[in-house]
Amino acid sequence: MNREDDPKLWDLLGRAQKVEPSPFFALNVVRAIRLRQPEKAQWIGWLNLRRIVPTLSAVAAVLLMIMAMQTFHRHSAPTGRERIALADAQDPDLAADLEVLIGADDDSDDSVLL
């Protein structure tokens, strides 16, 4: 920036009080840099037991809940024969058709075709 660009600014800067640094300024800066602690990586903070134990406990609880829900769902769903019995009570024609379909599935040959 040239003096011709903004003469008022340069006049103001010329009237500003000059500040002299203390004789130990450079030593103080170097000491501050030496004493500064290096920053740790963010992921190292997770290796703290105070964070690992609750996190792993929460993950284990969620996995146990998922397994319990799948087990409960698997045991609560009626099997094929139970479905026929339920359908038999509702509609005899439908039950006969279902029994024919299930019977046809039992007679199928699962051997490899040559």
Low-confidence parts, pLDDT < 50 over ≥5 residues?
none
Mean pLDDT: 76
Given the C-alpha coordinates, what overall shape results? Answer: elongated
Beta-strand segment tally:
0
Between the first and last Cα atoms, what is the distance in angstroms?
92 Å
Describe, in plain words, how this protein is organized in 3D.
By secondary structure, the protein is mostly helical. It contains 5 helices and no strands. Helix 4 packs antiparallel against helix 5 (92-106). The longest helix has 28 residues, at 49-76.
What's the short version?
The protein has five helices and no strands. It is mainly α and 114 residues long. The protein is elongated.
Keywords for this structure?
114 residues; mainly alpha; elongated
